[in-house]
Each structure stands twice: as C-alpha cells, then as structure tokens.
Design goal:
Number of strands: 14
Shape: globular
Strand order of the largest sheet: 3-2-6-9-10-5-4
Structural class: mainly beta
Distance between the termini: 39 Å
Order of helices and strands: HEEEEEHEHHEEEEEEEE
Amino acid sequence: MNEMTHTEMHFYEPRLGHGLPHDPFNAIVGPRPIGWISSRGADGGVNLAPYSFFNGFNYTPPIVGFASIGYKDTVRNVQQTREFVWNLATRPLAEQMNASCAAVPPEVNEFELAGLTQAPSRLVAPPRVAESPVAFECRLTQSFQLQGADGAPVDTWMVLGEVVAVHIDRALLKDGVYDTAAARPILRGGGPADYFEIGPEQRFRMWRPR
C-alpha cells in the first residue's frame, strides 16, 4: 500500500491579506509581457510608460490590452486621442524601460528621460521607440474601469486597442517566421524587482493534436 503524500497548502482570502512578506499574486501570474506604451495627449505631449499587466486578446482583428493601476497619463492620453503604440521591451533595453517608469510630471518626456529616440509611426500619431525591434500601432477599441465581484469600482483602468500596423526588425524573421527568442524579450516576474529573459534555452515545441 502506497503511502499518500500530504501537500501542505498556504491558503488565504485576498480581502483578508495574504500573510506573506510580499503579495504572491503577480509572481504566480507570471512572467508577463511588458506593456511598454507610448502615447500622445490632446495637447501634443508625448508619454512613454511600462505596464506589467499586458497581453494579446484576439487574433482577427489583433487586439492587445493593458491595465493601469490608477488613472495615469497614458490612460488619459489614449482616451483623448484614441491611439497608442506598444513597443517590445528587450534585454538590451531593460534599463531604459525601467527608467521610463519613473513618477514624473506629465510634461516630462520619458523618451528623453530614458535616452530613447522617437520614431514616427505610420498610421497613428504617437511615436514608436526607435530602438525597439517590434512595435504595434494601435487604435482604442475599449477603455473601462474595473470592478470587484461586489460591483464596486476598482482604481484600475483597462485599455484595449486594435493593432492597425506592425513594425518588425527583419533580422527577427527567420525564413519568414518570427523568432521570439532572438528578440530577447523581457517579462515581468513577481516580487519587487524580478524580471525574466526569454532565450532559446527555454524553447520546447508541442504540436496540436490532429
């Protein structure tokens, strides 16, 4: 008779606190792509900021989205102009990406703060990060405030946008197939400072059942 292995589980209800040194939620739901979003306000001011809650949500049309904890400059800009650009954050750009998340007044241009170059977009007004190998030009589809299970509003805003134009460094296209690992994307992990890099060592393949 095999002895059953007992696994001790840490259990908590988030509304009552997690009882740990650091909230594990964003470490468990991770690593996550970084929403490095450039936007332009109605006054013409440019903003660049990273968001750790970001992902793709639809193929056709392609739709991406990010959540902003607090009503920040990026959300205001996107709601005003209905456009934004997502820029791929890579390992060589990690320090600049981090610099762009500094809490600065709206009139401060994070491109200049982080030592980055503004590149013109094709179909939307906000600029791209010239140093980034991939960028999505997006038009707003939905923007709304999140709410809890009790219906009470949460101080977080969800922004969804349709990708209307794509820029890819041709060096990342191998026989016409985009090479994720070659781009060296970085992803947000948990804890106060953890990030991860994707490289070829992490790759494995599984084909869908036929």
